[in-house]
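Below: protein 1.
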Amino acid sequence: MSNVTESLSSGGLMKALRLDSYDASTLLEVEVAKPSPQQGQVLVKIKASGVNPIDERAP
């Protein structure tokens, strides 16, 4: 894995999960351009996220 600080500041690509509908079969792992914060904004790196079991049953 590359240096995290360097990769955050250099732009480039990042992995993301994209869900195009409520159907879990449409969940895709994609590479997208890393966002660049503008003046007055910050970029937050999420290392982990929790999912409530009831969320899986949402329509």
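Below: protein 2.
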Amino acid sequence: MSAASVAPLPVYVIDALNMGKRSRIAAIALLGYDHFVTLDREVTYIWSARKNNVAFYLYVFNRFFALTYLIFDSVPLTKSGVVSSQVYALYERSRKILIFMLSMCALEIAAMGSLMGVTIGHLEHLPVVSTPTGCFYRGLLNLSALFWVPGLLYEPVLCILVLHKAMSRKHHIPLVVVVARDSLLYFVAIFAILLCSTIIWARDPTYINMVMPWSAALPSILGSRLLLNMREKVHWTSNEKSYIVETIGHSQAQHRDSLTFIEAHLDLQLELELVSNNLHSCTGQC
């Protein structure tokens, strides 16, 4: 339904949509800057490594999909599943941890899918009201604010698992510290975005477009830096028998030194995480 076929939008709605566009431009600028300042590390640790593996394509997808999405605004966001694979690696490929994460992910997907179905079923206009500066929804239920709650519950669980492993005395090794540090930054940023989205959606969905661009930019930046930092750390470490390296990488001869590059061995957990995070951003986008 076009904007001409419905009542004119209030001024505050137009202002909110304009702020959303400015927020999108800022997110694109930050992504572009991060691409520029990490280009040398990408060449060394990503583009110079073998490309016939899942880890390489996961990095490329995580790195460039968000930028493409923000520029063209035509497809839903899918965040990286890198962090979940690191949790699995930190726990030495524990079957119990894998089953636990799969179960949590399945519950998260089921809850978000149900809430999305209820929300879409109660929209007054389909398609939503479209304007030159963004989209506006009518008939949203307050219940739809719960859409982000499963993520708010699941992300802290992963964070606790990482911190528990990192704080264990027998795991005070440099690579684990790097994983824990970067994962914590990732979790804090994602949790903040999910919390802001929940509060804004519950209080006034008009302003949701102000935070949605950052739900694409921050996971892309932090997820890429997580993998870059791990590759760089393994590049210089001599602990090639670490169970983390064994789980997510293998050794490769390069120049005169034996260097280890992380090649993520992703499984069904990764696929479920990608689908789960895809659902997070479907609501609030045209």
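Strands lie at 129-131, 134-136, 249-254, 257-262.
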